[in-house]
Amino acid sequence: MSQGIAGVTIPDSVMAREITEFVRDTEAPLLFNHSTRVYLFGALAGQRKGMRFDPELLYAGAMFHDVGLVDAYSSATERFEVDGANAARDFLRQHGISQQDIDTVWTSIALHTTPGIPQHMHPVVALVTAGVEMDVLGLAFDEFACEERRQVTEAYPRGRGFKEGIIAAFAHGTIRKPETTFGNVKADVLARMDPGYRRVNFCEVILSSAWAV
Question: Residue 120 burial (CB < 10 Å; 0-12/13-18/19+)?
Answer without folding.
Answer: exposed
